[in-house]
Design goal:
CATH superfamily of chain B: MetI-like
Structural class of chain A: mainly alpha
Helix content of chain A: over 70%
Strand order of the largest sheet of chain A: 1-2
Shape of chain A: globular
Number of strands of chain B: 0
Distance between the termini of chain B: 53 Å
Number of domains of chain A: 1
Oligomer: heterodimer
Number of helices of chain A: 14
Radius of gyration of chain A: 24 Å
CATH topology of chain B: MetI-like fold
CATH topology of chain A: MetI-like fold
Helix content of chain B: over 70%
Largest sheet of chain A: 2 strands, antiparallel
Strand content of chain B: under 5%
Number of domains of chain B: 1
Structural class of chain B: mainly alpha
CATH architecture of chain B: Orthogonal Bundle
CATH superfamily of chain A: MetI-like
């Protein structure tokens, strides 16, 4: 319920804001609370400002070309972020494509079909899935998922009749874009499922009953009435999932194979913005290299900010729409 | 007559399609649970045999050893993060309820932003603000338990702040009115009456936030730094379970792989027990009334 409830906002509290007639205790009380809130705000704004300032070296050296150059080399003192931006978008979108049918189907089942005694345990399990830390998924990815995918999915595909198809035209090795995307899909699945389930549950009953009364079957009601009703909220949930995938670091770093080149095939190694930071930042001694990595972080910050505020807006309007229908 | 027959046949087809799609959605719900079973199964299957008393309490050695430093490090980092993140989160939540006004929308937007920032970026921020200046002042230093805890503390704030605010708003206003009517100043009404009434919900938020940061690895890479030597100094690098899992998994040594699996099991048990505790506290009366 968290995100929906959060997005709804809350009614202004009834308490008077003026402190006239109150003692010193309350003045200090307000001051302390204000200080705490301002500290938090300062930290949030500080993140953007500090990243901007710390990456100025690289901004001066490469300008906007930083975003469009695919040359990443410390020896040549040239840093371009394109392979990482492409890698991040590639893996995240692929993860979304994999996770979408499963999480939407699951959400429909949990909200529309399942009786309470099935809904609660499955919802609980899906939420447990969300609480497993990224590094544990990475561990499983290295030792289980990557070898399994390489042997049972990638080898048949790349040596089979479709082997020359551009997406499959690479030697399978397990540590690649496909494995990273599958791991990401598993990690964003619980978020999309939980949020869209809440959105579907918020669709008022009379809307469904009207559809049944006109003779629609259960699926026709879901497909034609319930899903369109919650559309903007569900799109918001999906974009929220995308935002998670964009910033995910550890699991991806452990399985993506770390190659700062742009490859199309699913079975070739790649790199993402967050994983290049995780891998290279502690080893980087050259100031320009450090500054370039921080600029990548700044880009990632900007992208995730855009994606997430978009998602929040959609969920906000989505849940407001369904509340309006409730009245 | 024929048209009635086609009609009923079409109805049958529609019902069949409905059944099929419903079945498919059920199948998808089952598929969603499969990865959990696979991951948890793997961690238990591989981690449990590697888990001995010595794995828990041994100090790390050149070849192998135990996880004592990592476990204590994680607990220490959680403690430091709480010292920093809890007051900011809880008091910030109280501020939103007590004095927020129009300002609340802005603060809520900013905390949402903070919640969505990839954790590695927060690690980088703390590196730039804390680690780098220290390293410039006295070379050789920089990574510290303090910096790691600071990074985790920042990640805690949005969760704690949001849940505290939501729970406080669920407390009936009669409680506050009664306290104020008896002449209590507002701070006393809050800390003596309202906050204790909402205690369960606040603890839930705290436990959820702790569960979230306990498994964080990315923000520790450039702040806590990792350490295989036991120490409790706040200004020295410190080890943590997720960091050890990450490093051990990437090491060729078979022994370290087992250690990583055992560490993952401990970490997952730690996090899940915190989530369960959070759930227990959620059953306090104001939360259930609100739902």
């Amino acid at each position: 319920m968290g995100v929906v409830a959060a997005a709804k906002g809350s009614e202004p509290h009834s308490s008077p804001r003026s402190l006239r007639g109150f003692g010193w205790g309350d003045r200090i009380y307000r001051l302390v609370l204000q200080l705490c809130t301002l500290t938090t705000i300062a930290i949030i704004i500080g993140i953007g400002v500090e990243l901007y300032v710390a990456s100025r070296n690289s901004q001066h050296a490469f300008g906007l070309g930083f975003l469009s150059s695919s040359d990443w080399s410390e020896n040549r003192q040239h840093f371009g972020a394109l392979p990482f931006i492409i890698g991040t978008l590639y893996t995240s979108v692929l993860a979304l494509i994999i996770a979408l049918p499963v999480s939407l189907g699951g959400a429909i089942f949990l909200a529309e079909v399942a009786p309470k005694w099935i809904r609660n345990p499955i919802s609980f399990l899906v939420e447990l899935l969300a609480s497993v830390p990224s590094v544990v998924y990475g561990l499983w990815g290295i030792f289980v998922l990557a070898p399994w995918l390489a042997a049972h999915v990638e080898t048949p595909l790349s040596s089979g009749p479709f082997g020359k198809f551009p997406l499959f035209d690479a030697p399978p090795n397990g540590n690649d874009v496909l494995t990273a995307s599958v791991i990401l899909a598993i990690m964003i699945l619980p978020f999309i499922t939980a949020v869209s389930r809440d959105i579907l549950l918020a669709v008022p009953r009379p809307v469904r009953e009207g559809s049944y009364a006109l003779g629609a079957t259960k699926w026709e009601t879901i497909r034609g009435i319930v899903l369109p009703y919650g559309r903007s909220g569900i799109i918001g949930a999906i974009v929220l999932g995308l935002g998670r995938a964009l910033g995910e670091t550890m699991a991806v770093t452990m399985v993506i194979g770390n190659s700062p080149k742009i490859h199309l095939p699913l079975f070739s190694p790649g790199y993402t913005m967050s994983s290049v930071i995780a891998n290279e930042f502690n080893e980087a001694t050259d100031p320009l290299h450090v500054s370039a990595l921080i600029e990548i972080a700044l880009c990632l910050f900007g992208i995730s900010l855009l994606v997430n505020s978009g998602a929040q807006l959609m969920i906000y309007y989505g849940s407001r729409g369904s509340r309006g229908g409730d009245m | 007559m024929a048209s009635v027959q086609t009609l009923s046949r079409r109805t049958k087809a529609r019902k069949l399609k409905s059944r099929a799609m419903i079945f498919l959605s059920g199948l998808m719900a089952c598929v969603a649970v499969v990865p959990l079973i696979l991951v948890i199964g793997y961690i238990v299957w591989e981690g449990l045999p590697a888990l001995h008393w010595s794995t828990l309490v041994d100090l790390p050695k050149a070849t192998g050893g135990g996880l004592r430093v990592a476990i204590l490090g994680t607990l220490e980092l959680l403690g430091i993060a709480s010292c920093f993140g809890l007051p900011l989160g809880v008091l910030g939540g109280i501020y939103m309820v007590e004095f927020g006004g129009k300002f609340t929308a802005t603060v809520r937007f900013l905390t949402d932003v903070l919640n969505s920032v990839p954790s590695i970026i927060i690690g980088l921020f703390v590196y730039v603000v804390v680690v780098m200046p220290i390293a410039q002042l006295n070379p050789g230093h920089g990574f510290s338990a303090m910096a790691g805890g600071f990074a985790l503390g920042i990640i805690m704030i949005p969760t704690v702040m949001r849940t505290t605010e939501e729970i406080l708003r669920l407390v009936p206003s009669g409680l506050r009115d009664a306290a104020l009517a008896l002449g209590a100043p507002r701070w006393k009404a809050m800390f003596g009456v309202i906050l204790p009434a909402a205690r369960g919900g606040v603890i839930t938020g705290i436990m959820l936030a702790l569960a979230r940061i306990a498994g964080e690895t990315a923000p520790l890479l450039f702040t806590a730094g990792g350490n295989r030597v036991l120490n409790f100094r706040l200004d020295r690098p410190i080890g943590a379970l997720p960091l050890d899992i990450f490093n051990d998994a990437n090491d060729p040594s078979q022994y370290l792989h087992h250690l990583a699996q055992a560490g993952a099991l401990i970490l997952v048990v730690l996090i899940m027990s915190m989530s369960f505790t959070a759930r227990r506290f959620t059953r306090s009366k104001y939360v259930s009334e609100g739902k």
